[in-house]
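Thread: quick sanity check before group meeting

JM: Hey all, I'm pulling together slides for Thursday and realized we never actually wrote out the predicted structure for the chain we discussed last week. Dropping the sequence here so it's in one place. If anyone has concerns about the input, flag it before I start.
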Amino acid sequence: MAHSRTPRSLNDAGRRFLTAELRALAHSSALARRRGGGDRIALTFRPARQGRDGLPGGPIPLDDFRLLALSGRPGPSGDGWGRRRLVLAIYRPVLDPDGSGRVGYRCEQAFDVASPRSLYRPTLNATAARAAVVLHQALADADPGDFATTPAWPRFYRGFDPGREPEPDATVTPDAWAAAEVAVGGLRAWPAEMLADRPAGPGTSRVFASLAHLKGRRVRNPAFAVLRRHGLLTARLGDRAWLDTLGLPAPGGLVDGTSRAGRLRRSIEAYATADPANERALPRDARDGCAAIGVRIGTGPDGDDTLAGLLDSPWWRPEVHYAGGLRLIRLAGPAGPTTMTFADATCAVNFFDLGGDPSSHGPMRCEDACQPGRPAARDGLLA
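JM (edit): ok, ran it. Output follows.
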């Protein structure tokens, strides 16, 4: 049975792993900024409660989740591409901010993770740090075909008093209407897009969100960082560049012993068997890395086998089925208020807006939130 290791329960080794990944992120981001790359954004959802990754399977109150976005953007006036920010922004859902009846998102905290000291000094903000690392690695490791053009949204429900049934939209059939009804917190609820009157009206008690269809992500194998720190991989290569050198077989195929992947496996085995301390350190460090990134590892022989598999195949990307998926967006142009605004019938968000004075267009807010030496806020995932 797998057991959850949350950021709140990380041991010192797990915290050191996460801090090292943040520093590596800052270095690789500096290189990426010199090449451009300001037209992409990575998104995920998570519970509002600090230290939790797993999304629930049914509708939850609107304020019980957060939207996280990692994006590059211009710095304050006078800065050029070399001073662009890499911003992790945490957005809180809000009902009907513009009178349209849609759900909007308001930024409640932002970090410049290209200068990540605010995430680990004076203490590690493990929840935000994990999100920054996972989202950045997803962007760095992505193939061109991995990008979408629009976000994927939760499905929103509106709850009504038990004695009241709202009017469905004219396009909704009676069978579909009856099948869509769910009970949430003692209320009768229907998907918001099925309602004729979508803005909150008389008798509407609550708004709920279902994120079950947004669960499931694949993450970079923590064993990659572990093997690199043990000197078994070239430190200067990023994960994507390294994968391209391995000569991996097609899915389901066997690793050729003469390929780089095969030679790596032999070098890992030789390193582990050369010294009992190495044999103990590799799985221990891999377990700490998995806890830091949010990959659940069981205890006992099953957990040991999982760790051995991760170390033996560091190119394999483990699946975290309970956590929010990673949605990668390629913008229609450079980052800005126009290209970073998305809306449909039930939802709207401007990812460029980090709150505060609208004339600041966000980066000034991020700069204020991430001043060197300023203590990090406890966690933007809490109200």
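AS: nice. The first strand starts at residue 40 and ends at 47. Confidence is low (pLDDT under 50) at residues 1-7, 78-82, 357-383.
JM: adding both to the slides.
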